[in-house]
Amino acid sequence: MNCDKYYPYTAMPLPYALNALDPHISEYTMYFHYEKHYKGYVDKLNTALKDCPLMQNIPLECLTKMDNADIRNSAGGVYNHELYFSSLTPGGCEPSKDLQGKIKECFGSREELEKKLIASGMGIVGSGWVWLAMTREKHMVILTTCNQETIDLDRLTPLLVIDIWEHAYYLDRQNRREEYLQNVMKCLNFNSIEL
Ligand code: MN3
Fold it and tell me: How far is the CA of 150 from the centre of ligand 1 (A)?
């Protein structure tokens, strides 16, 4: 996640090359997504915080809940995208034994988990995010948020997130969101999850 926890924020380095997720997600899409959309949110957040000295010492996680819409949306744009890029890895990876057990306990199987992630992504009207998260009771759940909203980070630990904004897939797949989601399933970074 963001190396600089406080203002001024700098962009997280992409953990893989721009073309590393090809053919599931093209270099062209990753270029615009990482270089333009994500870095744009980092800039917007710094601009929004520039004249708010009291907000500059508040951690990013808390900024995602602020009343000020400029700050909240920009902070969500930074936080959500950093988790999204970290949720993907070239070629995907197998969950650890412990994680496999947890997935079985909460969803029945990895196949069922993937089906539910895809169905949740298909269910979003407009732009948003699909989250795999852990409750305080150590139960894994799937949640969705709209626009740049983040899940309640006081009550839930985010494990993976999938970007359902059209910019995440439109260049590659136009309106075929399900095809995008199927391809994301092949890139999920289960190694990023700590139980
Ligand atoms: Mn995005």
Answer: 13
